[in-house]
Known about the structure:
Number of strands: 8
Low-confidence stretches: none
Structural class: mainly beta
Radius of gyration: 29 Å
Order of helices and strands: EEEEEEEE
Number of helices: 0
Strand content: 35-45%
Amino acid sequence: MKKRLIIGIYIFGIITIVNSHYSFAADLNVQESTSLKTLNVTVGNLEPGFSKDITEYNLNISKDINEIAVEAIPENEEAIVNIQGNKNIGQGENKIYIDVITNNGDTKRYTINVNKEKERLRLTRVKYKKYDNITRF
């Protein structure tokens, strides 16, 4: 019967053919990976390019983009990935946070600093008045 072990300390007993008894302890307090294996965005390019050891990136986007789809795949298949800030992106500086959370509660945060192009004002109509009484100096 296979049984999956969780983090902790276990003591195992072994009985050999000649009736000798051995025991040993195994410490399963293993550090789970909080790193991402992949980080991609649907618009633009991350600067610098993705590396699991780099946790802060920059991204420039046009004024027409309001939402960025983020693909974040953890190295640890059992880790949870939580993404915040990738919707309703306003003009100027924004932040997207990607948290990788393991079963034992360890967390690593990746941040994408998003710079959304600002709207440019366009002059669409000019009104003017003609003044007859202008005093000249």
